[in-house]
């Protein structure tokens, strides 16, 4: 399925500049961008992955992870190939760092699949959805028109204008904040300022936001950097849920998995600043449960993807004190 790309400008000698993400790739005729998904074709930009799906599954929404948005639902989850970052520890490198086999689907077909599988929403996940921009935009518009909600699981690397447009049909996001340091971001092929701007814009647009930080030994495990991150999130909104996730060796990075002791130390530090903090990939219910920050009532108990809502009313408020805990769409 061919589709011309949005957000590029033409330069001299048939060159073009992509303006979708902060890399601003300048491409000669025939050249493909850093993300593997956008090509200069005769002086115009075409997408290489429009409607191309590498993975599709019905997942618990907690797997995204989203803990405070429609808890305990299953959601149709889809991904393509490509990414605009190059993390050596990528957990999904088979589809993010190379062109992978795909099946074609149209926006309307994908929305029909969501309906037929009983999903009330669609999650664009597994690889970076911003490098699938045109397909996510078209599909999320069709889905929203038909009463479905749309979720992005993203690294946050996008320019202001395309984000503004896409947010009109997005309801919830989990955004990776990989480190709180420009130099670390640059090594991973990213841009900290752009990611922070994305988080701010999403909060401003009243899109539900959760943040994930994968704690990788030797990369971003400095507690003083992490504390700055927690302070920054807290200043924006201390009720943004934060997932501190355990790294396991993968792709080109082979350091041992993050120690549970470090994760727990980071968790305790984060809790000083934030209302809702979780540890991912540790599978310890103590660090997966939701507790009302106002009155201490346990709202949700989780054992992995086994989710039990124990202290919420129908509108997602604490059943004891009425404090808003989760968003229900
Ligand atoms: S979206 Fe891809 S092609 Fe466009 S600037 Fe970013 S990395 Fe380059």
From TrEMBL:
UniProt keyword S-adenosyl-L-methionine present: yes
Keywords: 4Fe-4S, Iron, Iron-sulfur, Metal-binding, S-adenosyl-L-methionine
Record keyword Zinc-finger present: no
Family matches, as CDD domains: Radical_SAM (cd01335)
Alphabetized GO MF terms: 4 iron, 4 sulfur cluster binding; catalytic activity; metal ion binding
Organism superkingdom: Bacteria
Cofactor info, note text: Binds 1 [4Fe-4S] cluster. The cluster is coordinated with 3 cysteines and an exchangeable S-adenosyl-L-methionine.
Cofactor: [4Fe-4S] cluster
Binding site for [4Fe-4S] cluster: 83, 87, 90
Radical SAM core domain residues: 68-285
PANTHER family: PYRUVATE FORMATE-LYASE 1-ACTIVATING ENZYME, PYRUVATE FORMATE-LYASE-ACTIVATING ENZYME
Protein name: Radical SAM protein
Organism for this UniProt entry: Pseudothermotoga hypogea DSM 11164 = NBRC 106472
Source organism phylogeny: Bacteria, Thermotogati, Thermotogota, Thermotogae, Thermotogales
